[in-house]
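Example record used in the benchmark description.
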Amino acid sequence: MAEVITVTALNRYVKTLLDHNDLLYDVALRGEIANFVQNAKSGHCYFFLRDGQCSVKAVMFRSDARQLAFRPQDGMQVVVRCRVTLYERDGAFQVYVNAMFPDGVGEAQLALEQLKAKLQAEGLFAPEHKKPLPAFPQRIGLVTSRTGAALQDIKNVIGRRWPAVRLLLCPVNVQGFEAAGEIAAAIARLDKAGVDEIIVARGGGSREDLWVFNAEAIARAAYRCKTPLISAIGHEIDYTILDFVADQRAPTPSAAAELAVPDRQVLRARLYELEENMHRNMQKRRDLCYNTCKAYADALAGDLPRQKLRRGREQLSALCGALQAGSRASWSEKDRRFRHAAALAASLSPYQVLARGYAMVAGADGKIRQADQLAPGDTIRLVAAHRRAQCLVTAVEETDESTQNI
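Model output (structure tokens):
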């Protein structure tokens, strides 16, 4: 019968075997870094080294990490010198790295870079294809796990900021072999459902956990989507291909919810500010109207309009008096001139001469004749003031004014 031993005895025995194997004491390993984490307090580095088929847990203590001439990153191909052992407490097979050198890009990272370059060349990342998010969405589609923390974070934030919106959940697996197809199909389904925007979200995790969101199927589904799409994968430092294709990238699911809906508190503050501005403007206009009306009231109280009316009436009366006086003077002058002209005309009238006893000589045709126009035998008319006589000229004599007899 086999001897019964404790777990501690087993782990200690295996650790002893590994530690006393000279081939495992100083090993050079080539592999790709995955899930790299450096503890902020201790400075120790924890990560996995992997190749196309297997992976091994690795630890690099702070004293050795300080000697690095570069910053290790996920996907980086490196060569490490290490010691193979067993972490006795957890029974974890791992390597302790004391030196690390860059050795190019790992297979997975290389494939990711090639896919990223391909999609970028096809225009899937172009800014002109980005659609703006609606200001006041009514329905938001969610592509995430039904049981994940991302769903609760989004619901809490949206419930606080804009509870009037309706959420349509299309639950999917967010990691694993089949997750890419489910996520791509969920995006297409929500796009046809007529939602105002779509959020694809997953909470934090290792680089391996988030790798599914680098799938080409998801990227092309997001590009074909006519609805504005927000990518919220992992934490702020995590980037996936979906982030570059999406219309908006959020560092966390909670941040995606903040981008998706307005904040009712902010809108309430803006409405209050607008209301206050309206009240201030109305008060200013009221004050202006009040001041104007008060000026008019003061003028009325001071009898200013009546004073102006009285002065106007006095000026009008003076002008009317001056107009009448001028009119009378003008008529008097015109009458004087008319009388003078009439007297002058009367003095020159031949009828006035006839009234004094004179007579005019006219021919048979009625026209006035001069004495030198008369000839013996002519029949003439003598026209006096009150009488007319028809005469016959018997003789015409020349007279001398000096010897003229009447």
